Amino acid sequence: MQSLLPVALLLPLLLVPLALLARRRRGRRTPPLRLLVVAGSGGHTTEILRLLSCLSESYSPRHYVFADSDKMSEAKIHSFEQKRAETFSNSQILCNGPGTCVPVCISALLLRLLGIKRAIIVYVESICRVETLSLSGKILYYFSDYFIVQWPDLKEKYPKSVYLGRIV
Fold this sequence. Notes:
Elements: H1 4-27, E1 33-38, H2 43-53, E2 62-65, H3 71-83, E3 90-95, H4 101-113, E4 119-124, H5 135-140, E5 146-149, H6 152-157, E6 162-163
């Protein structure tokens, strides 16, 4: 009985710091991440919205770039955001191939080089690109922080890319 007494006295001393540490970790939240989404017409908009539906709420707020003449993409994005009302210190640009994403990403790269704003560029090659990259992909392969492909053949041809399998 006497040998259990020191253990009984030490047990609370060990458990209190662990409980405080656990409470502190529970209270931590991932900081919000501002996201710029470049939408293209047709299937590109559908793919990018599928990608966005898989992201956590920490990607907020989202800002969109699309062609002035692309009323269908505008309507799809507006509907998507109404269904998922979310509102983001770091910035990311997520794009998946429309030609309009190239000048946006080059502008972000220029802002980074000038030390004005750091934006992470995530490029996801369209699932329809099985053997070769799109023109946007060929350009942004060299400038993006993360270049994601959805086919293993592309990963072999482009070693900087990340193959995640089919994601849309």
